[in-house]
Amino acid sequence: MKSYKELPDDAGSNIIGQVTAQANRLSKRLASVKYTVAIMSGKGGVGKSAITANIATALTLAGYAVGIVDADINGPTIAKMMGVRNATLEYASTGVKPAVTPLGTKIISMDLLLSEDDAPVLWNAHTQKDAFTWRSTMEVGALREFIGDTEWGELDYLLLDLPPGSDRLPNVVELIPNLGGVVVVTIPSEVSHLIVKKSITMARDVLKVPIIGIVENMSFYVCKHCGEHEPLFSAADTPDNTFQLTTLGKIPFDPKLSHCNDSGTSYLNEHPDTPASKAIIELAQKIQNFFNT
């Protein structure tokens, strides 16, 4: 098979020039970001996006410049959780201005580009049943544009909220070879642990990406009558024993956190003294410590 450079004629598409220009834009944007962090789980339904949103809020409240890339192209939720879903993106010759939360966190998401609530992401193809052959390539292209074409400015942290599946991290590493680290989210169930192990193997053993640590979401709930901690799920071994990695935090279940995610308001601002808020703030501090030690 010949490379693009070996082809005698590209039919005027200048494909080499386009690819080079995209790579240069991506490198230029990332040069203004101190730390890049991917938030992944492997399994859906563990609250990974909620954790991403609240980590970003905690870091922003701590005085850092933070951006989020909603890398879940087909199931974007970050814009709603962060309260910017109705924002209108502005386009300039220098790039796209991201949506900005009231606290100052910058957001880019496919949800900001869809016209209707029920609009799915459709890729150009002769028929949609044929689009699957190019879907992965097109999703990587969209992610490249999200990172490279957005005017992030100077950022301390750029968080990438990955979709479920251990196969998504390689796409991110392809775009960001010097990815700063990965935060892995799970819940205290054996089924979740089984799937999350695969993501950890992909990150640590295959891609050689630093794993910052594990977050156990919905770890327990606090009885509102007696204050005792009660489990939500059947007993599973602790993350420390299961994954042999640093546990960054155990986030208790709190219906108020879910309500804030649904309404696009800041849980940490509205409920700063709850056990979940304190655990999230401590989690964000441990991420800072990872990069500053």
Please tell me about this protein's structure:
The chain has 293 residues and is of the alpha/beta class. 38% of the residues lie in helices and 20% in strands. It is built from ten helices and eleven strands. It has helices at residues 15-30, 48-61, 78-81, 132-148, 169-175, 190-206, 239-243, 255-263, 267-270, 275-292, and strands spanning 33-40, 66-70, 90-92, 95-97, 99-100, 106-108, 155-161, 181-186, 211-222, 229-230, 247-253. The strands form two sheets. Strands 1, 2, 5, 6, 7, 8, 9, 10 and 11 form a nine-stranded mixed sheet that branches. A two-stranded antiparallel ribbon has the order 3-4. Helix 1 (15-30) packs across helix 4 and helix 2 packs across helix 10 (275-292). The longest helix has 18 residues, at 275-292. The radius of gyration is 20 Å and the shape is globular. The N and C termini lie far apart (46 Å). 40% of the residues are buried. The model has no long low-confidence stretch (mean pLDDT 86).
